[in-house]
Amino acid sequence: MEYRRAYLPGACYFFTVVTDRRQPLLVDYIDRLRHAFRQVRNKHPFEIQAIVVLPDHLHTLWKLPRGDHDYSSRWMKIKRSFSAGLPATGLRESQRAKREKGIWQRRFWEHLIRDEEDWQRHLDYIHYNPVRHGYVRRAREWPYSSFHRLVAQGWYTEDWGSEVSDTVLDMQFE
């Protein structure tokens, strides 16, 4: 199958990345995931404008550098770095043939942010996601989120999320 992706240099993108078979690995290995992001960002810079990490998937907003559109290589390197040293489990034949470890779904969801309103909707979606999935009652209770940084910067109030609009609740990206 051929996927068409939107590649626009210097653009802002929303991503959803999911573990294979929704294995709840990411929170258990959060330091490994953080290291993978740091390692890739050091060599291939990009700005993480927002992120939330849940046990089996993550959502993030990235701003790529001017003149750079290569988010696919960055994701490949982040996934590879995270997976290094983790045991392969229950591999399907197609995964074995491609020398995969069965840690990540092969692809990811990407959305090119169109405007300020689109950016804000995705920002809200990211930070409300742990509440939406029932992990916590308030966004501020989830430790693996950029919500706390954005509260400190004045983007959100500490109690944000108690009355989230239907637009945020109805968004589906996973």
Summarize the entry for a quick read.
It contains six helices and four strands. A hairpin with a 3-residue loop joins strand 2 and strand 3.
Please tell me about this protein's structure.
This protein has one domain (12-170): Transposase IS200-like (Alpha-Beta Plaits, 2-Layer Sandwich), CATH 3.30.70. It has a four-stranded antiparallel sheet with strand order 2-3-1-4, covered by helices on one side. The chain is α+β, with helices and mostly antiparallel strands. It has six helices and four strands; from the N terminus they run βαββααβααα. The radius of gyration is 16 Å and the shape is globular.
Structural class designation: alpha+beta
Domain module tally: 1
Beta-strand fraction estimate: 5-15%
Low-confidence stretches: none
N- and C-termini, Cα separation: 19 Å
Biggest sheet: strand arrangement: 2-3-1-4
Apparent shape: globular
Question: Do you know the CATH topology?
Answer: Alpha-Beta Plaits
Largest sheet: 4 strands, antiparallel
Give the CATH architecture.
2-Layer Sandwich
Helix content: 25-40%
Number of strands: 4
Order of helices and strands: EHEEHHEHHH
The CATH superfamily name is Transposase IS200-like
Mean pLDDT: 88
